[in-house]
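debug: dumping io for the single-chain case to check the tokenizer round-trip. Nothing else runs in this session.
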Amino acid sequence: MPVFESKVDASADAFKRNREDMLALVANLRALEAQAHARAEKAAERVHARGQLLPRERLAALLDPGAPVLELRSIAGYDPGERGETIPGGGMITVIGYISGTRCVVIANDAAIDAGSLTIPGSEKLIRAEEVALENRLPCVFLVESAGGNLLTYRVEFWHRAGRMFAMQAKLSAAGIPVITVQHGSGTAGGAYYPGMSDVVIGVKERGFAFLAGPPLLKAATGEVADAEELGGMAMHSTVSGLVEHVADSDEDALRICRDVVARLRWGASRPALGGAFDPPLRDPDELAGVVPVDPKKPYDCREVIARLADGSELLEFSPLFGPMTVCAETTVHGLPAAFIANNGVIDNAGAAKATHFIQRCTQLGIPLVFLQNINGYMVGVASERGGMIKNGSKMIQAVATTTVPKFTLSIGASFGAGNYGMCGQAYDPRLILSWPNARFGVMGSEQAAGTMRIVAEAKAQRTGTPVVEAEMRTYTDEITAYYDAQEPAFITSGRSCDDGVIDPRHSRNVLGFSLAMSAEAEATTPRPLSFGVGRI
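debug: decoded output
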């Protein structure tokens, strides 16, 4: 396979400026993530005094030491425009990691924040993690300590949507995918359905509780008085109700039992070895921080990005002379086949036709698709429209929507308009969609939106005979520009759950290799589906 020869000079001033700008954004990302960690640490003394572990300490004890971990939606819920305090993370921690050598999805209530109560972004984050588990056939483990729905942020549509969390547990079990709960603390109201919908439940004695109505609500609703242990303690549930299979002495003991349960699943034990020996890229993936400018208006060659993701920097371009602004290339990442579609400009008629052909060919061959989004949209103009842009763009979008191979999306720059759709945005079901911190999203750029609305306003004024006051028009367009600009940055869109998380560009190769291996394992795993989920005795 041809080796791509990089033309980037890592010693150039432009490269150094790009790198400084990108690393500043990465530092901002880490600062946002640290807010949730800091809030949890404030509770450390109190939690440890109870003999319990903090949520991230539970994760560390459960997961295989030194094995790769991918956290999803780490800043979900972040929105500086909202009233009140918004802690990034949504009060939930979701990761893909290894337990006893088995790749699993782990979902943990961040019980150090508002008693692990469920928020709107937290519920969406949980549902998305379950979807990842179902699509990629990964065992799903819940680490539960939750006060149920957050009543202070309650909205009726949240309650309607939240039921999807438990429906997904049933779908996982019915698909033959194991669902395991560790009941570390209280599971109240909706929180009680985590264990109720699980195949196996491990409870911590004297600390774990599960009840539809806790003692205060029970007294308020019925007048009945009961203490937490008799109402929903692990001793009762393991001997009377049958909700709990294993009773543990402590958090640590519960996580040890969970590791044993996962080990005995023998999940994918007959799976063939994936990939094989592979060479690293010729240029260090660390250079990705300097290859791509933070300013989306500054051009660069997307092949420079692919060459730092691909094994040996080898890539076989598909029709490189036809529709050259759309780059299609076959390669391998961590020894696994991958087909890249990336942008060196807008998508024109030739580019859309080429991408459609390439997607269909990869589907026929079973090669996973990787989309590198840096796109302002499809080409507009008289010549483009007469050339069939709507028809050709629609064919590309249709191919993206209907292909049956795994799809992964990295948003590494602009992602505007229907270009987001053609380059496999969130609505087109990528297995994972991850953003770099410089990514920007919108129906169109802020300047284009403001310009469009100015033209509309001026046309209306002309129809009605209203004079156009330039100062007022500038204020109007400035407001529109600011409104659109405020919603474009990756931190805002990720906070609003428009992706599966923001990552450091320098980690992209390892994240992509991890993701491709996950989907390859899923293809090689054959669960034993039921017509229904495992019903508790």
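debug: round-trip ok. The CA atoms of residues 104 and 498 lie 23 Å apart.
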